[in-house]
Amino acid sequence: MQVTFNPKDTNTFASASLDRTIKIWNLGSPDPNFTLDAHQKGVNCVDYFTGGDKPYLITGSDDHTAKVWDYQTKSCVQTLEGHTHNVSAVCFHPDLPIIITGSEDGTVRIWHATTYRLENTLNYGLERVWAIGYMKGSRRIVIGYDEGTIMVKIGREVPVASMDNSGKIIWAKQNEIQTVNIKSVGADFEGTDGERLPLAVKELGTCDLYPQSLKHNPNGRFVVVCGDGEYIIYTALAWRNRSFGSALECVWSADGEYAVRESTSKIKIFSKSFQEKRSVRPTFSAERIFGGTLLAMCSNDFICFYDWAECRLIRRIDVTVKNLYWADSGDLVAIASETSFYILKYNRDVVQSYLDSGRPVDEEGVEDAFELLHETNERVRTGIWVGDCFIYNNSSWRLNYCVGGEVTTMFHLDRPMYLLGYLASQSRVYLIDKEFNVAHFLESRGMVEDALEVATDPDYRFELAIQLGKLEIAKEIAAEVQSESKWKQLGKLALSTGKVLLILY
């Protein structure tokens, strides 16, 4: 009924037959190497696992089941049950940890390739399924039916990657973990904006689960990987396991604590030393959690912010949240929905004063905890903060920045790219595409000038003024904060630009 070559040994192939068996053959012999008594009825289809770690193949049969086999031990690893008619097509996806089976019952079932759990069932009402196809490197699969064909996009395009504050990037290609260092390119590299950086990729190790998310902690020492309903925290340099457990999501606080969402009804908070501090059962179904200055828990209709120390409700906001981005200062937060985003100011002094007063907090939280500064009707794909400036790419793949409610386009991206981070030392924003190509974009002078105009933090305003060469503003800030390091920095710039008299008077 079907033959397929072994991708790891192209001299061997497998054949599926209605005599209920699978035979493994070698090109140099007319006799089979061995035979698997595979099913109770005829075998319709067979496919090999393309990954390097498992000598597996999968078969589909008229007995309504699919079976995963170890062709080295000649044993059945797992039986996949659930179809109500003949299984007519099977495949291991080459890039995602899934098995796909199609049946004459009209359904396509998607199974986890490690746990063998049924993840999803597709039924498009096109009668019997006869074929399933894929293209390596793509998230699209094509399904052939009696009544036509359909193409489906599965998984997500955003690469599983994270960059720390020093420019070290870690990403996951299936279970393989790799790292690159942006600073290895060298300051003399003069690539144009959007050009792929010639980075040297190093193998860091492997992960015991299939990574669906990966994120550095604030100081860059640790990386948390989530997937398969579990999390593992590794050291970023040596990739050593430091902690693990059950989790659908794991997020970091601004000072290195973390929270895990074990289910929609249970969240645990851990200290920086990986010790459990608190277990929380929200009064609503928590569909997402977000880290940062405050711990955020989302339902489908609203978001609730809590303090990390005692998990007290700070504020409930009625908005459907797609993503959340905190500024490093902890005073600004961007809430992204499907069609727009909101910039809010967090009034931490107001919150602390209210909590210290001992007054009760109702189900809405502290009324003046947040102040809405701006609302922009634009979809955010990914975003980062640079000081008080929010940089994001939108649905049209334009790289924009928002300062003081004004949105300006920095670049028009020629392909889908996702924000990784920003390096102040190089004044560059870094993005990555789904092929793990990294590109940089120089921040525009207009963006820096706008940021200087609205920024309130003196340290940040000083850096912006130095960057723009506005020595008078930098001098005012240095005099205000009385910082010796700032006077030294200002003096060096004044000497290099011949404006020594400016800082003497």
From TrEMBL:
Keyword terms: Cytoplasm, Cytoplasmic vesicle, ER-Golgi transport, Golgi apparatus, Membrane, Protein transport, Repeat, Transport, WD repeat
A Pfam family per the record: TPR_COPA_B
COPA/B second beta-propeller domain mapped to chain residues: 174-433
Membrane topology: Peripheral membrane protein
CDD domains given in the database record: Coatomer_WDAD_beta-like (cd22947)
The keyword Transferase appears for this protein: no
Presence of the UniProt keyword Transport in the record: yes
InterPro entries: Beta-prop_COPA/B_2nd, Coatomer_complex_subunit, TPR_COPA_B, WD40/YVTN_repeat-like_dom_sf, WD40_PAC1, WD40_repeat_dom_sf, WD40_rpt
Stretches assigned to the COPA/B TPR domain: 434-501
Any one GO molecular-function label of the UniProt entry: structural molecule activity
Chief location category: membrane
Classification via SMART domains: WD40
A GO term from the CC aspect: Golgi membrane
Biological process (GO), any one: endoplasmic reticulum to Golgi vesicle-mediated transport
Subunit structure: Oligomeric complex that consists of at least the alpha, beta, beta', gamma, delta, epsilon and zeta subunits.
Function: The coatomer is a cytosolic protein complex that binds to dilysine motifs and reversibly associates with Golgi non-clathrin-coated vesicles, which further mediate biosynthetic protein transport from the ER, via the Golgi up to the trans Golgi network. Coatomer complex is required for budding from Golgi membranes, and is essential for the retrograde Golgi-to-ER transport of dilysine-tagged proteins.
Protein name according to UniProt: Coatomer beta' subunit
Source organism per UniProt: Gossypium armourianum
Lineage: Eukaryota, Viridiplantae, Streptophyta, Embryophyta, Tracheophyta
